[in-house]
């Protein structure tokens, strides 16, 4: 599913980390970061280790040193493991494995604030904190630079990824009709690769040799982050503190923070683990862990209850071009702006609530409650337009592939060749899915009231019950005899005819 996203969340991973490549807003404090030069003895040691794997050599991009690296495939597998030939960390502060600079997915919450000094202590590295804005809200971004530096980071990088997130990740899934296990619209699953992609870019920009995240060893997000790291830069080392350290919960983290003079975030502890981005808001934990319990109304943040929604229905018209939404009520909008507009409209009508038990990648089942108002509206609109523009076999085959597409995205394989190939098919099959759909929103429901397309395969002159020149009803008799011949032959055999 996902890890917690808000700074006030109690989960191991907070979603303020969300970030990707397109950099709208970026802040650096380079004056606090200094390059790390590899001492000659370590250069020799690394050269020997590289030779042991018989891998190809690649230049190390730090300062003037050139150090042979392990073969890419081997390094990708071993990157997140402890170097068994290096001294392990102890209370005395012995370094596990020397790293130069680490880019940390950072939210400013308790967990990521503690990870900063832990990385410095255990890996002897500088820490560059990275935060992505994928639509979690401005409040989550306030004061992050001060928090990061107070925790010991040398730099904070913030990137606005909202447009890239919706345009390059959300909309392709929408076009594909990708829904995981019948109901989950993949909100967290789509956000993680755009964040991880941005982390790889930042690592290159600041000269880092490693990346780190705050995901637990029980969740899906560790897989999504690390598969993206491996796909985009297998030379990066990956550090996952929750799989290494002795911290077992909130109290341990607070104690560690005090011991290392890290200011503990004073935000109110949330009873839920939440992940928020422009596509959705998810809730996990507390009473939701028992599948018998009904969610409490005060838990919801994006949508009003259907009972409290307006008594008057609202009609909206979605314009679609080649399977992608482009306008609302005739107003052309950017992808992120369009989604934000529909979130507001759908939210006030109680649209998009879903209570789901799903199968995580790691094998266990988990329960989550999702709010996806804008996404629910868009899925209804795009699917309905396809009823006009796709023939029967194309629609059926697309639906079959959509299941696999959703599986790949959920499992963190966004940059897998199979997902990219499926996307090429989806782009081609929906090239005529252009037109508009009008929907009626009323107390939690979305009802399609009209649809039109210049590429519509629907012909009133053919479908009409009135006789027409193209379709002669008398022709149906011969068709039915031929179409039902196998059934007729089987029946004759059984009756000895």
Automatic annotation (TrEMBL):
Organism taxonomic ancestry: Eukaryota, Viridiplantae, Streptophyta, Embryophyta, Tracheophyta
Keyword Ligase: yes
SUPFAM superfamilies xref list: Adenine nucleotide alpha hydrolases-like, Argininosuccinate synthetase, C-terminal domain
Keywords linked to the UniProt accession: Amino-acid biosynthesis, Arginine biosynthesis, ATP-binding, Ligase, Nucleotide-binding
A GO biological process held by the record: urea cycle
Pathway of action: Amino-acid biosynthesis; L-arginine biosynthesis; L-arginine from L-ornithine and carbamoyl phosphate: step 2/3
Subunit structure: Homotetramer.
Cellular component terms per the entry's GO annotation: cytoplasm
Alphabetical list of Pfam families matching this protein: Arginosuc_syn_C (PF20979), Arginosuc_synth (PF00764)
Arginosuccinate synthase C-terminal domain: residues covered: 272-489
Annotated protein name in UniProt: argininosuccinate synthase
UniProt-listed Enzyme Commission number(s): 6.3.4.5
A single MF term (Gene Ontology): ATP binding
PROSITE patterns with a match to the protein in the record: ARGININOSUCCIN_SYN_1, ARGININOSUCCIN_SYN_2
CDD domains (alphabetical): ASS
InterPro entries, alphabetized: Arginosuc_syn_C (IPR048268), Arginosuc_syn_N (IPR048267), Arginosuc_synth (IPR001518), Arginosuc_synth_CS (IPR018223), Arginosuc_synth_type_1_subfam (IPR023434), AS_cat/multimer_dom_body (IPR024074), Rossmann-like_a/b/a_fold (IPR014729)
Residue ranges annotated for the Arginosuccinate synthase-like N-terminal domain, each copy included: 101-263
């Amino acid at each position: 599913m996902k890890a917690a996203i808000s700074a006030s969340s109690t989960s191991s991973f907070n979603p303020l980390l969300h970030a990707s490549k397109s950099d709208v807003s970026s802040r650096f404090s380079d004056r606090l970061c200094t390059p790390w030069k590899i001492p000659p003895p370590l250069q020799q040691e690394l050269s020997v280790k590289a030779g042991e794997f018989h891998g190809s050599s690649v230049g190390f991009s730090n300062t003037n040193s050139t150090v042979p690296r392990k073969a890419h495939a081997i390094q990708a597998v071993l990157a997140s493991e402890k170097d068994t030939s290096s001294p392990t960390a102890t209370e005395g502060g012995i370094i596990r494995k020397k790293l130069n600079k680490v880019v940390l997915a950072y939210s400013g919450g308790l967990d990521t604030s503690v990870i900063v000094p832990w990385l410095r202590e255990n890996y002897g590295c500088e820490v560059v904190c990275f935060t992505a804005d994928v639509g979690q809200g401005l409040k989550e971004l306030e004061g992050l630079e001060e928090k990061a530096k107070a925790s010991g980071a040398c730099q904070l990088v913030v990137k606005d990824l909202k447009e890239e997130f919706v345009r390059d990740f959300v909309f392709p899934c929408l076009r594909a009709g990708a829904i995981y296990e019948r109901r989950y619209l993949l909100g967290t699953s789509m956000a993680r690769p755009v964040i991880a992609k941005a982390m790889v870019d930042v690592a290159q920009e600041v000269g880092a040799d490693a990346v780190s995240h705050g995901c637990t060893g029980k969740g899906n997000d560790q897989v999504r982050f690390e598969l993206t790291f491996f796909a985009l830069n297998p030379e990066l080392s990956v550090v996952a503190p929750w799989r290494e350290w002795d911290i077992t919960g909130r109290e341990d983290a607070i104690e560690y923070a005090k011991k290392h003079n890290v200011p503990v975030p004073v935000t109110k502890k949330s009873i839920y683990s939440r992940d928020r981005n422009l596509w959705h808001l998810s809730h996990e934990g507390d009473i939701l862990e028992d599948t018998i319990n009904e969610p409490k109304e005060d838990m919801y943040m994006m949508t009003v209850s259907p009972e409290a929604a307006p008594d008057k229905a609202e009609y909206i018209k979605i314009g679609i071009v080649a399977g992608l939404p482009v306008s609302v009520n005739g107003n052309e909008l950017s992808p992120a702006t369009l989604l934000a507009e529909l979130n507001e409209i759908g939210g006030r009508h109680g649209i998009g609530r879903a209570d789901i038990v799903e199968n995580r990648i790691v094998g266990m089942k988990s329960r989550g409650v999702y709010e996806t108002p804008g996404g629910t509206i868009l899925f209804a609109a795009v699917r309905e337009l396809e009823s006009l523009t796709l023939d029967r076999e194309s629609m059926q085959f697309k639906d079959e592939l959509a299941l696999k597409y959703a599986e790949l995205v959920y499992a963190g394989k966004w940059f897998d060749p199979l997902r990219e190939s499926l996307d090429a098919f989806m782009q081609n099959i929906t090239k005529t899915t252009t037109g508009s759909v009008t929907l009626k929103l009323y107390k939690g429901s979305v009802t399609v009231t009209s649809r039109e397309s210049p590429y519509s395969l629907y012909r009133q002159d053919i479908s009409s019950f009135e006789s027409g020149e193209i379709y002669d009803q008398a022709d149906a008799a011969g068709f039915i005899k031929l179409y039902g011949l196998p059934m007729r032959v089987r029946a004759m055999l059984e009756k000895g005819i």
